[in-house]
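Entry: 50S ribosomal protein L27
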Amino acid sequence: MKIIHSYWAYLVLALLIIATVNAIIGLTQNKEFKDKDLRISLFTLIVTHIQLLIGLGWYFMSPSYKALKEVGMGEAMGNSGLRLLTVEHPLMMIIAIIFITIGWSKHKKQTTDKGKFKAIAIFYGLGLLFVLSRIPWTQWFNS
């Protein structure tokens, strides 16, 4: 499960970067919001939600969760490595997915191409920042 979660994360990160950059380019160059833009944004939304499900499955099977149950939340918060894996990473990824979902929802309500690109750029961009801020980089590259 950890391997699936780690490799799927590469796809999530790549698509999130592509969707955000695509929206920024569309916004700054006053492009028309076409089917391609819709598909990029939608596929990114779907992939991030699949990653959430994989991540939740892995979270409850992980050694970090077992350690959290053994030592308790107070002790886990004092251990930066355990805190990252059991609190910070899951919480920030959920918040990122919430932003991405809000961006998708807001873009659908927009009536202009600029409004659609702006909603995607802002909310997917925020999601990307949250994801990048709490990826356990040292463990990711060692897996």
